[in-house]
């Protein structure tokens, strides 16, 4: 084992920490959820991504219409492909039929990227959402698109779910002189949960079970041709062939999967802690059975995880500073005196553009059954707002064009939430409690509201579907604007309460004053005893109070 760890060089490690979007997905099947919904979560983690809610209205097109394709990450123009005659409405990563698609980039073998391809992974998602109704149909559309037009990106894991089925599909290109991609898709068994986080997760798979496993005809033969595999077909592992495991893949990527699984079934996942630490090569299964039914609120909390309470807890070492901050600003790896070191990479991270928990419910009409619980900026300090699949417009505070990554505006939810989170990074252990209080209050209310909205919308839908869609649109827009304004007030409150490192006492959000009407005297909370001990250890007697020397 020591030899295995020693062989994992930093150069290999870097292959798994440089994708533009280092993201996390959690997948929940119907019989694993509290209410029978299917769910997918996604965090779009990128230092260069702005948090906004994408929107494409349904449309019809004349024959011969062409669709321009621009790379999602950079905006680079890649080319044109024929447009579909009919497209569906898309709200973020969910369409009006409750189909949802998310992703995480695993990179894999760099020689398999095709820079001549026309379809990057982001365009593949959003074009497919406009063209497919079900998960199986989405897999067909996605694989047909890259076969016909070429796949531009590196290795990718996709979460694909409709109101009945949940799938993981993994795909990688075939190099610049070989158009198309090799891929495999596995349906997650009902009653189970899965996750992926920037490392290929599908190893061996059933070769004769078309109901639960689909794959490209050449997924094994191509690996043989390239020298990635030389065993029996039944022993073929997609992940081992196309994205060989290394230390970075484990500690920065699969460790997040372990943490999500550990929250949903700690008894079974304890044995994989050594794997998460990079001390073992015993892989986790692609999916597990949770020890309880999982709710959409449970998934939201998983997306807020920083390994708390585990051996990877980010609040415990010196990097957490005086306020137990579970964040480490980039770069992810660094060097001291010629030795290489790294920071943990948790599910929740500061560089998230947007995240969501998609909830698909088959007992309601599609326009009502699909809810994209959508949040911007850091998942740990966001509020997930309900965006219904039947919406015909999106809130201005979340819309494209309301600010961008280089233009601040109070009108944009992203900048309002960033205003709060960036304050919290400086006084985390104090501010996060104020944030959680408001976060929980708002999400409790929104969960209660949607239960009532579902019933009202269904009654209205039975009489007038278009009027029901307008009702859902108005509700989602109003709630997003109200949440954003409430969060702005929270940011102002935090600025006053913790101004200049002090603590101004308050009760139920009202700051205290003295008997004369002036602000009550500020408190000085200082640091924790553990941090003071760290200071003493570093400074020695330099900061120790002592008597002046006696006069001579």
From TrEMBL:
Keywords, alphabetical? Dipeptidase, Hydrolase, Protease, Signal
Endpoints of the signal sequence = 1-22
Catalyses: an L-aminoacyl-L-amino acid + H2O = 2 an L-alpha-amino acid
Q: Name one Pfam family in it.
A: Peptidase_C69
Keyword Ribonucleoprotein tagged: no
One GO BP on record is: proteolysis
What Enzyme Commission number does this protein have? 3.4.-.-
Q: Which InterPro entries did the record assign? A: Peptidase_C69 (IPR005322)
**What domain of life does the native source organism fall in?**
Bacteria
Q: What is this protein called?
A: Dipeptidase
Q: Which organism encodes this protein?
A: Carboxylicivirga sediminis
